């Protein structure tokens, strides 16, 4: 029930603001499989659009600011996982909560850049938290390229602009048998897939640079 409510509410947002969303699936997802969805982050609307492609209820890892508003904050605190950046011991609690969500049968939604990218379309450098969780629990990662959300509602913008949205769900990347030593290669692979999706489906937005992992 929670999955369908979350899915329907996410679509309702786009219906209300009149923004069409096109979803491209390069490979179907297994309905019985949990995943960790990793997407580039350029807009306040990234969270609901990621929920529209999920195969089951998705628990998000998000900055603690999302837990502060009166109504939405209460929902976020009770359904998702706030990340209190800079707070000592927080990551241990995040990893524990993420593991508990996976044990309950949920998928996870993570923006591995760790913050909203102010210079799209090229994703910024990833943080390793999502990849560590994926390897610890042997859960496949689904890379997602959100092509042009910054055109609709970028960070700090006081209003929305009309622009059709495209979301590309790539084939899952298995983590079975991986260890923490494999994290750098896994991060690079996911980065290349997400950046490659932007270049393939929206070359007019793509900065003509080599898709190397930022250092």
Automatic annotation (TrEMBL):
InterPro entries: Plipid/glycerol_acylTrfase. Residues 35-149 form the Phospholipid/glycerol acyltransferase domain. The keyword Transport does not apply. The keyword RNA-binding does not apply. It comes from the Bacteria. One of its GO terms (molecular function) is acyltransferase activity. Pathway: Lipid metabolism. Keywords: Acyltransferase, Membrane, Transferase, Transmembrane, Transmembrane helix. The chain crosses the membrane at residues 6-24. This is Lysophospholipid acyltransferase family protein.
